[in-house]
Write a structure and sequence with these properties.
- The protein has 592 residues and is an alpha/beta fold.
- The chain has 22 helices and 21 strands.
- The chain is 29% helix and 17% strand.
- This is 4Fe-4S dicluster domain-containing protein.
- Keywords: Iron, Iron-sulfur, Metal-binding.
């Protein structure tokens, strides 16, 4: 049986399921431990380095980390509904609880290096690029047609989910690094921008065009039918302050959920969501659907829109076909919000500017470097591969900034810098550790909400109140410290099986070497996505095999081991950002 190479940075990174799943690879257990210790400034800093917008993401992230969380797997026999650690809402705790002293932790930009970079659009991808490059001495200019930065974070996420003060604060940290902010300056020509002599251009203008539905009655009902993302922008800027009594929202994504909940707050007497797919197949995050239903908004699945019904020049309802039965129904309404998807639009990029586009109108990019067919032009966020989410846009920004930095130092963009990795023993004495390794049996805590009569009365009242200090500590203790790894030294092992006896998950097995190892473990390792830790070199010729999938990282094996063959070592992975560390050795040496 092949032995595990724990020196491979990806091995223990994959064991930290939450960090592995996060597009920006935020070291989740690290910041959760800091929250449990009341060190909120440092917890916010860990997030800021990785994901740039902790306060924004702590309220609005799509949470790819949470379905991956080990807690949800090991709780399967303890809880009727196993749930992960509330990773996203703990991120908000760090943001809300940090002190003014955090500003002193912000780094100072390096001296200007003479290179100029333009960022088109002021959304999360562009601002991530701007932050990373400004810190390294690049003169970064951000262009946007709006008066304030943030992109769709500001224009399309309702204030009851994300207060404007949070956007202002976190965008301000970036602009405060010396980034030039060109408010109200929408770029209308790529050729003209390139003629200004920028060394590189990053396009992060999002997917600004909402899809329409060309159904019968659409032209006749145009004043009462709106594109969802445009309508949300109008609400955000105060251009729309009321709605008609009966509203239908078409679509099953997060934008549809924002539309229906916003309409509810703007005075609609009834709001109905209609989606052509099944409920389980909706693209909206499960919690977004739950929040809408919690506010009394019905979601009708398998409803295929057929026509806009109208009389005397006004919308009267929508006709649908129920996909499961073929029956046609008419739902009365006075206003319709269409939220059936978004698409990219680049009318300002001339087709002879040297940038290739595919048949879908998307730029042809190298998927690792985000470089377009015009070498000095890069794309990221929704502008790159279509609509995704904030954390993915941030990850794109980091990678594009690395690419720009390498390009402007004459290096191969296809060679991506390896992450920095550390493994540090947590021993404090023979059997004591520098972290709390007690496994909490508490179930996931509920985030308190504002009173319904208050929350539904205003579009600007934040619904979720966030965890208080006591609840945050309790939730943080649910984290299983998956970044503190069980590291085995076979030369010290006397094969007493003490670790096997004490393991609460039966995930350690000493067995004969050979094939079909998963089937010969004390508890069969059924999750093929997670590796088995295999070490040989034992005196009897057997191998030690540990199923990484369900290990609690409790340290009981290390505490029981009489020879210290098991150790608890904290794994830290720091992905390379733009700057000297992301460059080849020769270039780093020149820079020094």
């Amino acid at each position: 049986m092949q032995r595990t190479d724990i020196s491979d940075p990806a091995y223990f990174h994959k064991v930290v399921d939450c960090q592995w799943a996060c597009p920006a690879h935020t070291p989740v257990p690290e910041y959760i431990r800091l929250i449990a210790q009341g060190r909120h400034d440092e917890a916010y800093w860990v997030n800021w380095v990785s994901n740039v917008f902790p306060g924004v993401l702590g309220r609005t992230c799509d949470r790819p980390c949470e379905p991956a969380c080990r807690r949800g797997r090991v709780e399967e026999k303890q809880a009727a509904k196993p749930e992960p650690v509330a990773i996203c809402r703990l991120k908000r705790v760090a943001a809300d609880s940090k002190t003014d002293e955090f500003r002193a932790m912000l780094p100072k930009p390096a001296a200007r290096n003479g290179r100029r970079v333009a960022c088109v659009g002021a959304g999360p991808a562009s601002l991530a690029v701007a932050r990373d490059l400004a810190l390294e001495g690049y003169a970064v200019t951000v262009f946007d047609g709006e008066a304030k930065p943030g992109g769709f974070i500001r224009t399309q996420i309702p204030r009851f989910r994300l207060p404007e003060r949070v956007i202002d604060e976190e965008c301000g940290y970036i602009l405060g690094l010396g980034v030039e902010w060109r408010a109200g300056q929408r770029v209308d020509s790529m050729k003209a921008l390139l003629a200004e002599g920028y060394d590189a251009v990053f396009v992060g203008c999002g997917a600004p065009r909402g899809r329409d539905l060309a159904l019968p009655g659409r032209d006749e009902t145009r004043p009462q039918v709106h594109i969802g993302i445009d309508w949300l922008s109008s609400v955000s800027f105060g251009h729309v302050t009321a709605v008609q009594p009966r509203v239908i929202v078409l679509g099953g994504g997060n934008t549809a959920m924002d539309c229906c909940r916003s309409a509810r707050r703007l005075g609609a007497e009834s709001v109905t969501v209609a989606v052509r797919s099944g409920y389980a197949q909706m693209k909206a995050s499960p919690w977004e659907k739950e929040d809408a239903e919690h506010e009394g908004i019905p979601i009708l699945d398998f409803h295929v829109p057929l026509a806009f019904e109208h009389a005397d020049g006004r919308l009267t309802g929508m006709r649908f076909r129920k996909a499961q039965t073929g029956e046609e129904v008419v739902i009365p309404c006075d206003e319709v919000l269409i939220a059936v998807g978004q698409e990219n639009a680049f009318p300002w990029i001339e087709r002879d500017a040297g940038i290739a586009f595919d048949e879908h109108g998307l730029p042809v990019l190298d998927k690792q470097s985000f470089q377009s067919s015009l070498p000095q032009v890069f794309f990221g966020g929704d502008a790159a591969f279509g609509p995704k989410n904030i954390i993915t846009a941030v990850a794109h920004g980091h990678e594009a900034a690395v690419s720009i930095d390498r390009l402007l130092h004459g290096e191969d963009l296809r060679r991506r810098p390896a992450p920095h990795v550390n493994l540090v023993s947590q021993k404090m004495g023979i059997h004591e550790w520098s972290y709390d390794n007690a496994v909490s049996l508490d179930l996931r805590g509920k985030v308190p909400w504002a009173a319904a009569e208050k929350a539904l009365a205003s579009i600007k009242v934040e619904v979720e109140l966030g965890f208080d200090a006591k609840a945050a500590l309790k939730e943080a203790r649910r984290c299983l410290n998956c970044d503190v790894q069980t590291v085995f030294a076979p030369k010290l092992c006397i094969e007493c099986d003490a670790c096997v006896d004490i393991c609460p998950m039966d995930c350690i097995t000493f067995t004969e070497d050979g094939d079909d190892l998963r089937g010969r473990l004390r508890a069969p390792a059924l999750n093929l996505m997670q590796d088995i830790y295999v070490e040989g070199g034992l005196k009897t010729g057997r191998v030690m095999a540990k199923d990484e999938d369900v290990c609690l990282h409790c340290g009981l094996c290390a505490e029981r081991c009489p020879t210290g063959a098991w150790d608890m070592q904290k794994f830290l992975l720091v992905t390379a950002k733009a700057g000297a560390a992301c460059r080849d050795h020769a270039t780093r040496k020149e820079a020094a």
